[in-house]
Design goal:
40% helix, Amidase signature (AS) enzymes, two-stranded antiparallel ribbon, 11-stranded mixed beta sheet, 16 helices, 13 strands, 460 residues, alpha/beta
Length: 460
Amino acid sequence: MIAALDLALREQAAGVASGELDPAELLDACLERIEERNPDLNAIVATFPEESRRMLAEAPDGPLRGVPVLIKDEWPLPWRAQTFGAPPEHLNAKAGESGPYRALRDAGAVIAGVANMHELGSSSTGNTSFYGAAHNPWDLERCPGGSSSGPAAAVAGGIVSGAVGADGLGSIRYPAAYCGLTGLKTTFGRSAMQGHHLAANTETIVSGPLCRDAADCRLLGSVLIGEEQHAGDARVRASATRLMDGLRIGVIRDPYWSDCAPGVLAACEAALESLRAEVGGEVIEVELPGDRLHIPAALLVAQSEDAAELTPQRLNALSPELGVINRGLIKLRALLPTSLTARAFLVRAHARRALAELFERIDVLAWPTVPAVAPQLAEPTIEIPSGISTADAGNARQGVIANLTGVPGVSVPVGLDAGMPVGLQLLGPWGSDARLLDAAEALERATDREFVELRPAAVA
């Protein structure tokens, strides 16, 4: 039965629905695998077998009935408050029925545990958490990506086949790339978010799936969005394939391609050509005016969202166990001038307009998800043509435009560099989540699914 955990998410769901898999045995096997593998991965910070079994006993006949999944430590559950990877007293959050919990429950899924995350979601590396860093299954000394570090490490580590993450400034796509997974950042406002502690979220944060391939992301993403992102029958798949014919793929060479590590660039260039050939498409070089301002604008918008919750009492009560960087960032939020934040929102408006005009000429944008593969946990720096920098700086350049503007994005595994996964990112117009998944599946076909089928040696 433990081998059933190695099936795709959709295969597990089909097996339970047909009676070929016993969901109680599947859950027990998942809990056993957590005990077996989590000491090395540190991907999961809480399990609750009795609550999981209660979910299974009460599971409706939905698309994920009886399938074990994980949820990032970013939303409350009826029996556990979220901690956001920080000391529990920092948020003083309460247990409750969050939107992602209800979506999973109503789909019949079983939440087997809460997954680790980077402290307060403040980095793309996943190397810091109140619970200790999660570890990349491909190399336990390397970063799993952040802030959805635990969901990615758990799926790549074979503990579950799907997990719910959150993407605030790339936080699903970075760990997908680092861990060799497919991760979908949904269009802002489409996926379940109720119960998130940032009630002032204006465009940046969304829930989304981290899975082994695009079809599983489609299934879990449909649950989170609340409507099917294309059905799975042969007729609809054929229609989706036809829609990909002649796909216009936009690329912005500098800096999104040019400033990447050679191995990452080679893998992504090969994948881009494979996708173009698969769909009879066209690669079009384009520009995005003002893109140098996107990182500071996105960071300012994100900081302003959290600043709405600041009070003098909260500032004075910061836990000494909270990391020094986050303590400083929280205090900085209280000092940001309104004029600076207003300029950030102006940049966002210009970025939206520029993207809207760009998507009149192209169907998707493509570039490497991250400019270099997962760095060391102890020193998360990368070396790219522009020099040695923090992983956060390089990753943010590749990822924040989707959060700043609200467009969807997907990261697809396309190769290895020095034995570590490489991801290619596709961005599409607002509401094109399903079409991005169609393109991701076309890319999988073009590469004979070689890279989505790869597994870390430790769990293969």
